[in-house]
Amino acid sequence: MGKPKISIITICYNSEKTIAHTLQSVAEQNYENLEYIIVDGASKDNTLKVTEPFKNKISRLISEPDQGIYDAMNKGLNLVTGDIIGILNSDDFYVDNNVISKIAKRFDDPAVDCVHADLYYVNKDNTAQIVRHWKSCAYSPGAFIKGWHPAHPTFFVRKRVYEKYGLFDLNFNLAADFELMLRFLERYKINSIHLPEPVVRMRLGGATSKNIKNIIKQNIECYKAFKVNGIKVSYLYAFLRILPKLKQFFS
202-213 pLDDT, tens per residue? Predict the structure, then answer.
């Protein structure tokens, strides 16, 4: 039995300043059966030009207008042909060339539906500077209610899970990734395991964290995600959600 095909999706829009790191980190992976899909939102800068040196490592590239990052992710999910899917945004990159091999090894057990790991938040201008270390842990029932959730860039899921339980819900503008992970893990109880090491470096300054207004909106959407999935949650959830994140700055 050969190695399962792993599909990586990168979505981008006007990402000329950062996407080269992302592309290189995928191109240098030592895992052989890898599919790489780029979904560009019709960038107006040199993003597509930056992708050209990596064309032999890119399985599929589309460039067209979309309705936002989660619509672009859904487009990518509809294109993949792999057995296992990961999503790496255009300002993130893998910590080394062994990441996909390590993730794949955890899927040797056919009962495993999902693997998630740890993550480094790094300075957007100096990616060698770690600002925050997201140390995750194994999922346990009810963990989301207590403020826990996986780091989405480390969240690898079998294609069959998306086919059975759905894609990103476009009613969520800032927290569709949170809602999807909540739906898969808390509502449908997919079988997940934790890889206890960082696999992604993520630049600070993304859409959800760039200002206090978006942080508040994201927390409201996270609260809504519980309601949509029929899970009761305390009105203090926003406070519970912040606590684990504060600890990450001092770990």
Answer: 998 755 555 567
